[in-house]
Design goal:
alpha+beta, eight-stranded antiparallel beta sheet, 3 helices, 27% strand
Length: 187
């Protein structure tokens, strides 16, 4: 056997092995692209596990009104065609605060017992939903809606993509539970 025949005989199995490995890698990559990740969701920070809420001034959070409301809030809130389950809050959780959300949706957060919003005036445009008056405080990516015609101010922060379901469900609960009060436009 000549040296050329020996080299050629060794090269064929080596080339075949390398070619097979390359084809296998291309096949796996193609399969991954075609199948994707299926219905698996990626963990987005803040969308899974206990939700940490910053404590903010809520002087009436311990009031009977807020205690009663928090006990009667729904376990789920509609968001578009989805239902958001109640989220566990990280300790220490602010009093009279509740959140809903899941791995695919930013949380909806309710806080009861807030101070009167400084934006509330005699000329404020209020939205009435299920006989409950709300003041909208627009934000970046979400809006905070404040109930202004009940014994306690209730703030509901809703992501812009959540639709009107959260406002409608909370309005119905508040309407059925808390007596209507005149709107106090002055401090």
């Amino acid at each position: 056997m000549t040296q050329q025949e020996s080299t050629s005989a060794l090269s064929r199995p080596l080339l075949a092995a390398v070619g097979l490995a390359v084809l296998l890698a291309i096949g796996v990559a193609t399969l991954g692209l075609v199948l994707g990740t299926g219905n698996q969701t990626q963990d987005v920070p803040g969308r899974t596990g206990p939700l940490a809420l910053v404590s903010i001034d809520a002087p009436d959070a311990g009031s009977p009104t807020c205690v009663s409301l928090v006990e009667k809030l729904p376990v789920g809130l509609p968001s578009g065609k989805d239902m958001l389950p109640r989220r566990e809050l990280a300790s220490p959780a602010p009093p009279a605060a509740v959140a809903w959300g899941d791995a695919e949706h930013d949380p909806v957060v309710l806080r009861c017992g807030m101070p009167r919003p400084s934006e509330l005036s005699a000329t404020s445009q209020l939205r009435v939903i299920s006989d409950v008056q709300w003041l909208q405080l627009p934000g970046s990516g979400s809006s905070t809606w404040v109930i202004v015609d009940r014994d306690a101010y209730v703030a509901l922060t809703v992501p812009d993509d959540a639709g009107t379901g959260p406002l409608q469900d909370i309005s119905t609960t508040v309407r059925d539970l808390l007596p209507k009060q005149p709107v106090k436009t002055a401090p």
